[in-house]
Amino acid sequence: xxxxxxxxxxxxxxxxxxxxxxxxxxxxxxxxxxxxxxxxxxxxxxxxxxxxxxxxxxxxxxxxxxxxxxxxxxxxxxxxxxxxxxxxxxxxxxxxxxxxxxxxxxxxxxxxxxxxxxxxxxxxxxxxxxxxxxxxxxxxxxxxxxxxxxxxxxxxxxxxxxxxxxxxxxxxxxxxxxxxxxxxxxxxxxxxxxxxxxxxxxxxxxxxxxxxxxxxxxxxxxxxxxxxxxxxxxxxxxxxxxxxxxxxxxxxxxxxxxxxxxxxxxx
Length: 267
Hints:
The protein is α+β, with helices and mostly antiparallel strands. Among the domains are: 1-30 and 129-170, no CATH class; 171-267, no CATH class. It is 20% helix and 34% strand. It contains five helices and 19 strands. It has helices at residues 33-42, 49-67, 98-101, 113-127, 133-138; strands spanning 3-9, 21-26, 73-75, 79-87, 102-111, 130-132, 153-154, 163-164, 177-183, 187-192, 195-196, 201-202, 208-214, 222-225, 228-229, 233-235, 238-244, 250-255, 262-264. The strands form five sheets. Strands 9, 12, 14, 15, 18 and 19 form a six-stranded mixed β-sheet that branches. α1 packs across α2. The two termini are 42 Å apart. The relative contact order is 0.15.
């Protein structure tokens, strides 16, 4: 399947680009973590799917561990992972309190412009194939789903912007996994129905997962799922919150405050 491009017109009359037509790439689906590892094993590799999955899991854990130790992590030609915080301002430097003014921890990725340009050049030389989404919709009878190859077909009701995998949806048979990373000198627990959940557990999509954090003295804990903050409610010194497991692998980062380092929970 070639790269699909949708052409749309700029209708903002307050910009110099008004009335011009631009192209943007249309994604047909989101490849899951398990699908990526399976592809790795089948892509001129001598390693099986389980080995590729194990290596990818180890890489993921190590990246998180190094980030929580205050390092940036370069990821090959693609770019660099790093952490960022969201904070409220203080009138004086001495008034800034990490537990109070810091209210968000984010996982960020900065692509390497030079390397990305090189990768784009390589891709264009190897696979310079593009198709207009409009043409794809008009010729939908020629691009029907091919279950044997896992190809996608356009969805006319959505203007051809997205496709559906064979079987009619983008879900996979694999159960999503939850990676738990903790930092801070306080304590925290992650449970489902009162039962403890450890890092790497497989959890069905939509399952309610509870979080309970008792932070270090004078600290305000934070919890984030895939980079988005989870609301924690305080009651008698304990902060609680919850979230529903998404349809893909997820990373839960809990900071209970204090000076202790952190890493991926291996319990």
